[in-house]
Amino acid sequence: MEISDSRHKQFQFLFRLSCFLIFFGRAWQHLVWDAPFRAFFWDEGLLEGIVTSLLGVSWFDYVTSTSTDLFITVLTRVFGVFYLIMAGITLVISPKMKKLGWLYYLASAFLAILAILYCKEKFYHTAQFFEYAIQFLTPVFFMHLVFNKTSEGRLILFSKIAIALTFISHGMYAFGYYPRPGVFVDMTINTLGVSEDFAHQFLWIAGVLDFVVGVGIFLPRVGHYFMLYAVVWGLATAVARTWANVTFGPYMFPLLNQYLNQTLYRLPHGLIPLALYLVALKPIWRRATSNTAAS
Length: 295
Fold this sequence. Notes:
Number of helices: 14
Strand content: under 5%
Structural class: mainly alpha
Radius of gyration: 21 Å
Low-confidence stretches: none
Order of helices and strands: HHHHHHHHHHHHHH
Number of strands: 0
């Protein structure tokens, strides 16, 4: 599937914006707040033997050492600087800058490692890793789009797969296959102003719809309807991270500082489906509509 030059520009813009938001949001997180590196560096079962043999100190001394904590903090900030640089590069990169393409592979690898660390924190739930599929694959998709390394039809297909993985994985938590996160329940209550029982019922339905969307976006003729739902739900769940936790008042700006970054790097969960809906699927819907009207 190939698209016109004007639609190619729309497509590329939405991927560029998504990539920028992922990098900027993660930079904000790593530079101001924290990342789950301690889930690895404080894993006694995994690292105790290495620490005691190579560093010659006990595990207790290692995990309580200010040097260890400083190392993890500095590492977190270094990753933050890298993501911030990538956000800047993403705003200006063009087909003439092919020598920078490898940075997007590296960035995707780092984001995938971050997803693995979150997965480790959640007792190695597979869905926790794949819930970040859009985030760690978008940099590679964007780089291929800028440098024309693959056809747009192939890119659309792989983007659909990333969307399906993200939504189905999210649905496994909302549905209750894995323990439903309290943050999901709290966000629903705070956003909709409903009871806890209603919030659980709402999330169960949302989880089922996530499963349906993960399959429906691949269906011919009707796939654009499911993709449109993915746009709305993806943007809504991203905005809810801030909306449900920030209130007007003296603590508004500290709360924005804490939660807005979480919204930024999740906005692509709705923007990537929007790119596919506007550029790839909506024209198909329009042609089908015009053909029906003509007949």
